[in-house]
Design brief:
The strands form three sheets. Strands 15-14-13-7-12-11-8-16 form an eight-stranded mixed beta sheet. A six-stranded parallel beta sheet has the order 3-2-1-4-5-6, sandwiched between helices. A two-stranded antiparallel sheet has the order 9-10. The N and C termini lie far apart (about 60 Å). The chain contains ten helices and 16 strands. Helix 7 packs across helix 9. It is an alpha/beta fold.
Length: about 325
C-alpha cells in the first residue's frame, strides 16, 4: 500500500487555498493540522477543508502532531524561521511560498537546515509545472530551435520579489537551471512602496550572462512591454514564445514549420505536491527545489546590488543582506 502523508499548513491566507487544492486532489495526502495567528482565518480555513486540529502557535503544532509535509504560506519575512524550525521536527518535505526569503542569508539558513535534517525543500515557483513552460524546456533541450542564445522575459505589474520572481525562475528553468556568471541591473523606486511587508520597487530591468554565454533580459514593473511571464527564447534555428499577449500559451517556429508559428502538443502535468512526494520517495531534487529557489533569489538580489553599486555583480554573491534594504538604510527613502 502506498504511504499516506500527513500535512500541516502554516498560514491560512489567500495563497494557502492553492496549496490546499493540491493536497485535496492528491490521494496520498491529508491536511491534518493548520496554524495561523489570525483566529478568523484559522477557523475559516479549518471549516472549509474540514481540519479539526487548529493552532495559533505553529511550533506547538509541530511538537504535538505527527507531520510528514509542511506548507509555509505566510508573509515572506516568516519563511526562513518557519522552514528552519519545521525542519527540526522529523518532517520529510517542506513546500514554502515564494519569494524564498527576504535576503540570501535567510535563504542559506533554509538550505542548511533542511540539508542537516534530511528534509526535501521546495519553493513554490509553481509556474514551472505549467505545461507550456515544461514543453518549451524540453524543446530547447532537444535542439528544436538550434542553440539557444537569448531569453527575454517580461512581467508587467508587480515587483521583482513578487510576480517577477516567477518570470526569472522560469528563465532559469528554460535553460536547464544552468549557473549565471554575472548580472547588471537598475531599478526605479517612487516613494516608499512595500509589498507583503518587504521594501519594493516600481520598475526593474536586468541583463545577465549564463556560464555558457547565453544571455538573459528581464523587465518587470508597471511600465514594461505588454505581457505576464511573457518569454521569448531565441535559438540559432528558430524561436519559442510563451504567454504571448492575446496568443497561445506556447508557439514556436523553425525550419520544419517553414517559419510559420505552430503550437505543439502539451504534456500531461503534475502538481508541486505530487513532485514533492516523488522527490522524497525517489531521493531526488524537486523540480522547484530549494537550490533552484536560491538561484532565483540570488539573481533578484544581484539586480538590486548592481543598482546599488552601479556595476556588474559577479555570482555567487557575497552580500547576504538585501541590497534594496541596504540602499534604503543608506538614505534612499
Amino acid at each position: 500500500m502506498d504511504k499516506q502523508y500527513n500535512v500541516a499548513v502554516i498560514g491560512c491566507g489567500g495563497i494557502s487555498h492553492m496549496h490546499a487544492g493540491w493536497y485535496v486532489h492528491e490521494p496520498r495526502t491529508t491536511i491534518t493540522a493548520i496554524a495561523d495567528l489570525d483566529e478568523g482565518r484559522l477557523e475559516g480555513f479549518g471549516e472549509k477543508y474540514e481540519v479539526e486540529k487548529r493552532y495559533t502557535d505553529y511550533i506547538e503544532m509541530l511538537k504535538t502532531e505527527d507531520i510528514d509535509l509542511v506548507s509555509v504560506c505566510t508573509r515572506p519575512k516568516h519563511h526562513a524561521p518557519i522552514v528552519v524550525e519545521a525542519s527540526k521536527h522529523d518532517v520529510k518535505g517542506i513546500l514554502s511560498e515564494k519569494p524564498m526569503a527576504e535576503n540570501l542569508g535567510q535563504g542559506k539558513a533554509m538550505l542548511e537546515a533542511c540539508a542537516q535534517n534530511d528534509v526535501k525543500l521546495a519553493i513554490d515557483h509553481q509556474v514551472r509545472f505549467s505545461t507550456p513552460y515544461q514543453k518549451a524546456t524540453q524543446m530547447i533541450a532537444d535542439g528544436a530551435i538550434g542553440d539557444l542564445f537569448r531569453i527575454h522575459g517580461i512581467c508587467g505589474g508587480g515587483d521583482l520579489k513578487d510576480n517577477a520572481t516567477h518570470t526569472v525562475d522560469l528563465m532559469l528553468y528554460l535553460h536547464g537551471d544552468k549557473p549565471v556568471s554575472w548580472v547588471i541591473g537598475q531599478i526605479e523606486r517612487i516613494g516608499t512602496p512595500t509589498k507583503y511587508d518587504l521594501h519594493s520597487e516600481d520598475f526593474a530591468i536586468g541583463y545577465f550572462k549564463f556560464e555558457d554565454n547565453v544571455r538573459g533580459i528581464i523587465e518587470s514593473g508597471n511600465d514594461t512591454a505588454p505581457g505576464y511571464h511573457h518569454i521569448y527564447c531565441y535559438g540559432t534555428e528558430g524561436e519559442i514564445e510563451l504567454a504571448a499577449p492575446g496568443g497561445p500559451g506556447i508557439r514556436y517556429r523553425n525550419q520544419e514549420t517553414g517559419g510559420a508559428w505552430e503550437s505543439p502538443e502539451l504534456p500531461s502535468g503534475v502538481t508541486p505536491v505530487h513532485d514533492l512526494i516523488a522527490a522524497i520517495e525517489e531521493d531526488r531534487e524537486h523540480r522547484s527545489s530549494g537550490q533552484c529557489g536560491y538561484a532565483t533569489l540570488e539573481l533578484l538580489m544581484a539586480i538590486y546590488e548592481s543598482s546599488r553599486k552601479r556595476q556588474r555583480v559577479r555570482l555567487p554573491m557575497e552580500e547576504m543582506e538585501s541590497p534594496l534594504t541596504l540602499m534604503i538604510e543608506d538614505g534612499w527613502v
